[in-house]
Amino acid sequence: EEVAPAAGEEALPAPAYAVEPCVWRDGLVVRESGGGEEGGGPGGGVECLSVKLHLPEVEEASEVEVELSCEELLLTAAGKYRCALLLPRPVELAPLLCRFETRRRIMSV
User: How many helices (H) and strands (E) does the chain have?
Assistant: First the structure.
């Protein structure tokens, strides 16, 4: 969702995004989830969420500021994007992986 601008700030669009359940296993994100097993998905691992944000106006990761709480992700790219994304369920803050794909201009959290 778009975040209302503070006094004196311009309104900025929210980027397109997708949120998917996944599993964190052996330091990698695996695109499977579910299984109903306590403590992880099929084959072990920790159930988590993957958030991908498309940022076509951003050229490099240093332009993006990400703040994460157990219930919300805040993203700001100065003068380009601002969004507050409520996560579909509470998450633990670790393990955390954040990456920006320069060619595709996608931020993955």
Answer: 0, 8
Count CA within 13 A, CB hemisphere, residue 77: 21
pLDDT digits (tens, 9 = 90+) for 1-55: 545 555 455 678 889 999 998 887 877 777 654 444 444 445 677 788 899 999 9
**What integer pLDDT is reported at residue 23 of this predicted model?**
84
Tens of pLDDT, residue by residue over 54-87, are: 999 999 999 999 999 999 999 999 889 999 999 9
CA nearest neighbour of 20 among 53, 49, 54: 49
What gap in Å lies between CA 56 and CA 38, rounded to an integer?
39
For the record, the structure tokens of 52 come out as 């991908």
Q: 3-22 b/e with 16+ CB inside 10 Å = b?
A: beeeeeeeebeebebebeeb
User: Taking CA 9 as the corner, what is the angle to CA 72 and CA 59, rounded to the nearest 5 degrees?
Assistant: 70
| DSSP 8-state code for residue 56 | T
